[in-house]
Design a protein that fits this description.
One of its GO terms (biological process) is UDP catabolic process. Helices cover about 30% and strands about 15% of the residues. The C terminus is likely disordered.
């Protein structure tokens, strides 16, 4: 069966659900080869753009009708997954549905009902591997989502497999992770050694497993800020505007482009709507970005009391971030808000605070009608629509405040940043290449794809699961994460990756991987193996092509070298010349028809030519040809005129004349034939006339073997 394993995971977000399909080598296939570096890596996960699909809206909208979540929402995605996972691998492919912020906001009873119906639909309508609904179908906390994102980012950037190439100083080789969705935002990073020791109880212990079975352990801080996603922040912002202008019907909004009018939910006002006739408040854009920054700053809620210092925002504890070694990557809204409108020409452009703020300020101060015209001409690409440009000013202000006033990321372009002496400017689209060679040198970089793979928390989940499918080396503990506790005992809150390792029937054993090993460049016995493989093919071809074809090939080969092919000699009998090793051509029984001796014309011969010896082969041979048979010789003493007309009726073709022990031909051997021997079915002195249609064939044709479907030939005679 196949050497690959597959995994299917649903990201059930607030706005919709997206399915991802991933693939990796099973343990046996991944361990083929002698390269120690390959064995000391995490399993190689692959995915494709065509292996993911999204549908709207989110499953949280089925809280009041949970029984419809399967047929109305999940069926399209599961059918899509079944199209791309090989049919023979479906029952061995784990399926996960992990819900995020949208489902967290549902009442407990509705959330439980939706999850139960999701699990029931998977079990009844698919054969995907689903041993534990509680583990495979669940609402994950924001911290877990952030941890999976941290795994994905470091996996793609190489922080796990090649830490020596990503040394940021102080023994630090991993990257921090920032994610912002619609409802929440997450941060995950490994603090420096000092902070890790000081805040050990606040860290998560993460355990992965290499292909060779060895464990990788990291201590990571993760936290989530619910309500700090872009959409929830906007909702809180609009509520703040309403509170600032009580009783007003038109509220000036500095976070909208100049001249744009929208209702409280952010939709453009349509003619005849309540907002258009002044019956309810609406927002009018002023396009003053500096004012927008001031109004979004209070949304960070930095004034909240911090019970466990230090805190970043919302009064939540966060260890101090050392930006000398902690370089962050941001995904989701961090990417879309910084790149979709403001960096379409430089998709991998590094973030520069001064330049970015200038771009946003210029854009938001433009007249709304001019912006719409640019959208129509696709100035920023096909993906940038009217809704995107409506929201980008607010999102940009919120991102800037979150990054610099909330998390504390240095303002590149205004504030000095410590970098290694050999650091490059790192302000071009070579950012991803520098991450592989020198590591991210700036404290923050927004990313979407790394090496063509989307940086998604779902990838981190699948990396964790795939590593758990590598057999443990020695006493290596289970793969997963939990509280940072010392000792070998797993903590009570330990979250398994999704299943313990168990070899499956579709996994190829070590011996069945010979073809992969043979053509693997790192295999030490590759060249001898290829030579042996070629030799086997040559020997097999020799026996299969047949003797005649072999002889023809040999004669052609000899003609190319200028040598004359030697005549084929008859092989002596023996084992090597049997049907298995020798002559494969069929043997035929030679059957001669009875004939009238008068049909043969014999020529005269000089008696001087008659041999004097009674033994075969002692006199000069006079062989003739008759259907391939050599004419036997007769001794002189056996040749008597009395028997020259003896009828063959009285003797068989192979009878022996009475006075000699020599085999004859059914005609008396007194008058020898010409040197050309017995001519098969020669015509008589009087030429045979043409036979009628029912008379058969002429005797001038060569004799044929009789068979059940053949009738004896009829001759025409004078």
């Amino acid at each position: 069966m196949g050497k690959h394993r597959y995994g299917v995971i649903f990201d059930a977000g607030s706005s919709g659900s997206r399915v991802y399909i991933y693939r990796w080598l099973n343990a046996q296939a991944a361990r083929v080869g002698d390269d120690a570096k390959d064995l000391a890596r995490l399993p190689e996960i692959t995915t494709k753009k065509k292996w993911r699909k999204k549908v709207h809206p989110g499953i949280s909208t089925y809280g009041a009708k949970p029984e419809r979540v399967g047929p109305d929402h999940l069926q399209e995605l599961t059918d899509f997954a079944l199209e791309h996972v090989p049919a023979e691998e479906v029952q061995n492919t784990p399926i996960f549905l992990l819900a995020t912020a949208g489902m967290r906001l549902l009442p407990d009873d509705q959330r439980a009902a939706v999850l139960d119906n999701v699990c029931g639909y998977f079990q009844k309508n698919t054969q995907f591997q689903l041993p534990d609904c509680g583990l495979h179908v669940q609402v994950i906390p924001g911290e877990t989502e952030g941890l999976y994102g941290w795994i994905a980012a470091n996996y793609l950037l190489g922080g796990f497999d090649a830490p020596e190439k990503h040394d940021h100083g102080k023994g630090h080789s991993t990257y921090g992770f920032l994610d912002m969705g619609g409802a929440s935002a997450q941060i995950a990073f490994a603090p420096n050694a000092t902070e890790a020791e000081k805040h050990a109880n606040d860290l998560k212990l993460l355990r992965l497993r290499k292909v060779n079975g060895e464990a990788l352990e990291y201590r990571v801080f993760v936290t989530t800020w619910l309500g700090f996603g872009a959409n929830e922040a906007r909702r809180r912002y609009v509520q703040g505007l309403l509170d600032s202008y009580p009783g007003e019907r038109e509220l000036p909004d500095p976070c909208l482009p100049s001249g744009l009018m929208v209702n409280q939910t952010g939709h453009e006002i349509l003619p005849g709507s309540p907002a258009s006739n002044g019956s309810e408040p609406h927002l009018l854009g002023t396009g003053i970005f500096a004012e927008c920054l001031k109004r979004t700053f209070p949304l960070l809620e930095k004034e909240r009391h911090c019970d466990d210092a230090p805190c970043l925002l919302n009064g939540q504890h966060t260890p101090a971030i050392d930006f000398d070694v902690n370089h962050f990557v941001g995904v989701s809204e961090y990417w879309h808000t910084t790149h979709e409108v403001f960096a379409m020409a430089h998709k991998d452009r590094s973030y520069d605070f001064a330049e970015y703020q200038k771009q946003v300020t210029d854009f938001c101060s433009r007249d709304w009608r001019g912006i719409l015209k640019d959208v129509g001409s696709q100035k920023w690409g096909k993906k940038v629509d009217e809704k995107t440009v409506e929201e980008v000013c607010f999102k940009a202000s919120w991102l800037i405040n979150m990054l610099h006033d909330g998390i504390g990321v240095p303002r590149v372009g205004l504030e000095p940043v410590k970098t290694p002496e050999n650091a490059l400017a790192n302000k071009t689209n070579a950012m991803l290449d520098s991450a592989k060679g020198k590591g991210f040198l700036d404290p923050f970089q927004a990313v979407d794809l790394i090496d063509g793979t989307e940086v998604s928390w779902t990838l981190g989940k699948m990396v964790l699961y795939a590593s758990s499918q590598m057999p443990a080396a020695g006493e290596a503990l289970a793969v997963g994460f939990g509280s940072n506790t010392a000792g070998v005992k797993l903590p009570a809150d330990f979250q398994y990756a999704g299943g313990r390792y168990e070899a499956l029937p579709t996994d190829l054993d070590h011996e069945s991987q010979w073809h992969d090993r043979l053509f693997n460049g790192s295999y030490s016995r590759r060249l001898p193996g290829i030579l042996i493989f070629i030799l086997i093919l040559v020997v097999a071809g020799y026996f299969l092509c047949g003797r005649d074809r072999r002889n023809g090939i040999c004669q052609k080969a000899m003609s190319f070298t200028g040598r004359q092919p030697r005549p084929r000699r008859r092989k002596p009998p023996g084992f090597l010349n049997s049907r298995l090793f020798g002559n494969h051509s069929p043997s035929y029984e030679r059957v001669l028809e009875s004939a009238d001796p008068h049909d043969f014309e014999l020529s005269d011969i000089d008696e001087a030519q008659i041999p004097t010896s009674s033994a075969f082969g002692t006199s000069t041979p006079r062989t003739g040809r008759s259907s391939g048979w050599a004419t036997p010789l007769a001794s002189a003493r056996d040749m008597s005129p009395d028997v020259t007309r003896q009828s063959p009726v009285n003797k068989g073709y192979f009878d022996t004349p009475g006075s000699a022990g020599i085999h004859g031909l059914g005609i008396t051997p007194l008058t020898p034939f010409e040197r050309s021997g017995l001519m098969v079915r020669t015509e008589s002195k009087e030429k045979l006339h043409v036979a009628p249609r029912d008379a058969g064939r002429s005797r001038a044709t060569s004799p044929m073997r009789k068979g059940p479907l053949l009738t004896p030939f009829k001759e025409s005679v004078d």
